[in-house]
Amino acid sequence: MTHGYRTDTHSPYLDQGNRSWRDLATHYALLPLRLFLGVTFIYAGVDKLTDSAFMKDSGAGSIGDMMRTVKDSSAIPAMVDLALNNPVGFGYAIAFGELAVGIGTLLGILTRLAALGGALISLSLWMTVSWASDPYYYGNDLAYLMAWLPLVLAGAPYLSVDAAWRGRRRERPSVY
After folding, report:
1. Which pTM was predicted?
2. Gap between the Cα atoms of 103 and 43, Å rounded
3. Model confidence over 119-130: pLDDT tens digits?
4. Averaged confidence pLDDT in the chain
């Protein structure tokens, strides 16, 4: 009995003219995740920047009070201490970071780098703000961290500025 694999049933490549719905679904599988994460992080950044209570050192709903609340329960209290040196500056850094990550992901600009930034933001929030969630899966930052990983690995190979740049590079004649 010989063993092998069939090549006549399903091809993962779309440039063969005969595109099935499975080929299209496979090709665009990361698009909903990219759209969700991009829009969510843009919204989170804008929400922080427009919330006057959040961008304060103390008071109800402030970044300072939130960081003081999670300091003892976080996995990395030194990171929280660092943020508490300038809570408003830290709040702006997180907000602008989320905005940059969201725009980069949504438009597909340096997508792998943007996704890595999103993963690092999610990791830092998981290790500080959601670390005390019990059971651990109630902390949504861990789920966001895992959601970023496919985009770190795959980037945005279609419907993106990255794909347009890649296409332009292919069109240029080689000078070497």
Report:
1. 0.80
2. 10
3. 999 999 999 988
4. 87
Cα–Cα distance for residue pair 131/109, rounded to 1 Å: 31
Nearest to 35 by CA among 125, 159, 175, 132: 159
Is the predicted pLDDT of residue 106 greater than 50, yes or no? Answer: yes
Answer whether 156's CB lies under 8 Å from 32's CB.
Answer: no
Residue whose entry in the numeric block shows the structure tokens 């009995």: 1
Phi-psi region of 114 (alpha: psi -120 to 50; beta: other; left: phi over 0): alpha
Which amino acid makes up residue 46? V
Which residue reads 């992901």 in tokens? 105
**Rounded (to 5) percent helix, strand, coil in the chain:** 65, 0, 35
Nearest to residue 151, comparing CAs of 89, 106, 121? Answer: 106
| Interatomic CA distance for residues 84 and 64, integer angstroms | 7
**63 has a pLDDT exceeding 50:** yes
Q: Calculate Rg over the CA atoms of the chain.
A: 21
Closest of 151, 120, 165, 161 to residue 30, by C-alpha:
151
CA 124 to mean position of chain CA atoms = 13
| pLDDT (tens digit per residue) in 81-99 | 999 999 999 999 999 999 9
The secondary element (H helix, E strand) that includes residue 115 is helix 111-128
